[in-house]
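note to self: the first set is below, dont mix up w the second
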Amino acid sequence: MKSIERESGLKLSGSSPAGLVPKMLNHAAYVTHDTAVTVDFYTRVLGMELACSVLDDVIPSTGDPFPFLHTFFRIADGSTLAFFESPGLPPRAQPTHPAYSIFEHIALEVSSVEELHRWHAWLLENGVSVIGPTNHDRLILSIYFHDPNGYRLELTVPIDPSWNMHTDQAYQNVQLWTQTKRSAQEAGGDPTEALVKVIKAAREQRAKAG
């Protein structure tokens, strides 16, 4: 890791200097314009429990006078997805690029490939449009769909049991991306073109390695 830091000029660290790391995901929160529809989808279709709710006319953390209903849906590991409904909110602005609607998503893990296929069939049975299954570089297998609020969801199962423990390779990829982008910018070139070249080269190397 130290050599990566020297070559890239980045400070890359594998742990907090304070020795702190969050224990688990408690919740991720999003906006809904229809709590009833959201409750039906996450409880009936995705099988989560409506675990908790908060009613208030002021946001406790900021003091903003937004009346809201905050609902939490419990996943099997105890973490939750949460939603706020507040009256009078306008529709969300359209993203400035379609990639935002693809990259930004919520991924939930399932127990097996067989279960992933059962989810695929169940979602289709409930009129939900599904993309996949998609194999991600032999790391995970996933399907994609949208909830009633338009949020992109992913159900995924690891193919590689240690898929989220490839730390050294992750730092190498961060270095490769950062160095390539910086070099292209300093040379007045197109970072996208340069990045595509190194991505293709890396893909060829993985293919040769089997």
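second set (the one i keep forgetting abt)
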Amino acid sequence: MRATSITLQSESLMKLSEDEKCFFQENGYLIIKDFLSSKTCQELKDAAHKHAQDKIHNYLNFHRDIEEFKSLITHSSLHDICDQVLNARMVPIGSIFFFGKPNNPLENGSLPHQDNYAAKAPNGSYLVASLALDVTRKDNGALYVYPGSNKLPELPFVESKNFEYDDSGKLIKNFPIGNEVKIPDGYEKLTLEYDPGDLILLHSNIIHGAEKNINSSDKWRHQYYMHFIKDGDPFWPGWNARRQIMDRGPKRI
């Protein structure tokens, strides 16, 4: 079992197999099982709810406000994994947290999109590492991907608004996340299944999305997306995301 601890800040190396690295290169995604313990996942959920209180919606950059999330995004074992899949020193630059509350009017899933529309980084330089905090299946808004679409160039997209704020800066409306792309012929949708503590890596060009959680069984889909850039490569900070380079240690693998 691959397990690490935010609290203990384990320094153990996280080595991927050649098969895992090849799978990512071919398919554009990779699921690392049991990256964190279920206990740590619950601690992260508790910290998120304590911070948000009754304001349940998507949050940008929890790592700037909540120590537990800063500890995660700066964790050396996480960096080991990100470094290996793109064979570069990957630097954290931002994050977004999804509560995934069932039927929440302030959360509306996402459209099929490629992530680099937002960061505007060089092709293959941007990476997303997504941590699952709940049992996640199709019925509560699991990620879907189009395997192999990572080999496509950046596709034309329909530009859309993601967030709307009032004059005081309070979020009043959330639209489906992402600038929608048309799915080219030959690519099949695959809905992923994953569990608390699993880490999902996404290539910047893979087409992916997530349905709005509309289940009637009170199954939440807490999930934390962390964004990385190859060391030294340019990126667009974004008006809302305000991406910025974070300090991290040297590349270890």
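remember for set 2: The chain is about 20% helix and 25% strand.
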